[in-house]
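Before a colleague's protein record goes any further, I have to sign it off. What it holds is a sequence and that sequence's fold in token form. Would you go through it and say whether the fold makes sense for this chain? The record follows directly below this note.
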Amino acid sequence: MAHPEYWGWEPPTPSATADRVVPAHGEKPRTDSPRSVLTGPQDTSEVADGFDDEMVVEFSDKFQDESCDFEHKDVLDADNRFEGRPTATSMPRQGRLDAGSLRDRVTRVLRSTLSWVHDVEPDAAAKLLQRIDSSERVLKVLSDEYRVLVRAVLEVLAHECSVLSRARVDLGHLPVLEEYDASVAEEIEAIRREVGVSTPTDPHAEWQDLVEGVQRAHTRFSALDLAKGIEAKMPVFDLMERFRRIEPPTVVRSDRRQRGTMTADKIVDMARSVSAVRTAYRFSSGLPTLDLGYTGMNEARGFIAPGQFNVVMGPTGTGKSSFANTIVPAINLDMQNWGLEQGLQVVFHTEEETIDKLKGFRMDSGQKYHYLTKNLVVDACGTSRKRLAETLYDLVIRADEMSRESKRPITEFLPYVVQIDYIQSIQEPEDKDPATASAITAEFFLRGVCAWNPEEMAKFSGVDFREYAGAAWPKGMEQHRVAVIAYAQLVKIDDSTLYYQAGKRGVQMSDFALLGDGDEPLWDVREGDLRLFGKNQMRGSGIIAQNAHAIVILHRSVPYNNPAVKDDAGELHLNDTRARILFDKSRSGSRMTYAPMRFDVQSTGFRAQYFDEVAERAMSAGKLTDVNPSYSEPGDPILPLRPFRDPFRETAY
């Protein structure tokens, strides 16, 4: 296929100078000059940065339509803003598929744009030169030899701008040219001849148009390269490599980004408009005393809200997994009570078998909450952060498919709560140490999962949704947020003050119990009780604690050597059930310092869990009446009543 002329017009024949002849653009330079290889782009057989001329020619015939066939004179009649010279946008589409024409366009626009620096202030010229020099993709379109020449020209002009004090830039008077090869002077002379002929009114706009055109050409060539591979039936691995080279067809950020910068009043208005159609969910832990401690004024009672990152921590043996046994079925039930019948809770775990986790949740076949399993995803993620992202991406794909089939909002089918047990176990091979791994994982959950931001998830996991799914991030999730509960381990402490011993030197009551105004312990402390711990003793990076909206510390008075014994009724109970949940951090403020609990075995005898004995007594006394009727026996989640949720409220019409 013959390459058409780029603009459909012939440039004026250049005049000769005293010592040298500058060839017209597109002409071959004089072969008797040793410097002739630097005077312009001649070799169009290969274009850098993904532009394959052979591929372009092959696909240009295949993808053209009839609208491509029009005469250049029609273009000239349609737009003659530059005295008969057509603009870049009026170029025939088949020419845009031509790698040689792309080089020709870059060279022409480069010379015309640089001609603007003649007779302008040095500061203004320097800004333009810097912009051109930073356009790496545009300059890569040029041949290697010509690109070297252009770099030298930019260097000469930048030097002139830096040494001028009051005078303007004069392309006809550049003393430093004596230090450069004569080919540089020839190129600057070619630029000078464009002054007043093709000099743009706004050089920055002219150059930006070129940058945009090159970006679109790159996208098109990459897409055609992928299509060529598909037709050739290449392996999927190779196809994905070509797919990854496809970039957005624009460099304009406002057209690419999902979220723009807004002033505070815009954010307030947006939040109000969103809250008017979206329910302000808070999910209950099933432990009312714990919920009360983290519920603000005028909020629905609950332990956590979408968009929050709460950390549950405690030393080994204090019942972190048992705490999950308590709150997992509670959250699933509460989601049902909110009307999220298709919403999901995701539990990532790094230890135990999945079936054992389900038994602890009382969701195994035949157990009390087995019917909730359709809204629960339990994934043994091992130590892989990539696995976390891929599982969540799979759920997005699933939600998108269900949304299309049912014609309902995609948010109806997405995860609302994610739990990870435990966060410090996640470490990829490339993470240099455990502290770094924990910091990256914490950022992944807070900035990626909580905010439901695919860019942040890809940044901290190394897995891009577009590459993984082969499709763009679905629309309709812009306001979706996810609540994350992460379990964290503490550093091991083995010293003489680990257990309470009355009268022992160095043992202080404040290390074993919270103190009241009169320095009296807020709970009973006995000989051999375990000491308290703080967030500064969390294993790994402090980023986990910094990112958390709330930190709760699980504490049992006797976590070890505490066997289960049968009572008079033949039921199993731990010998010592004293336990509590400490409120170590809360960004929104906490009403209490701790929630008293009872830690005991479940009625099934298979696992232990936390019991809110205070709330159970309040129910028996008739003081706690705002309770969902799903509660039937001790250990069941004690959930608040939820308002009716209109299923059509969040539907867009």
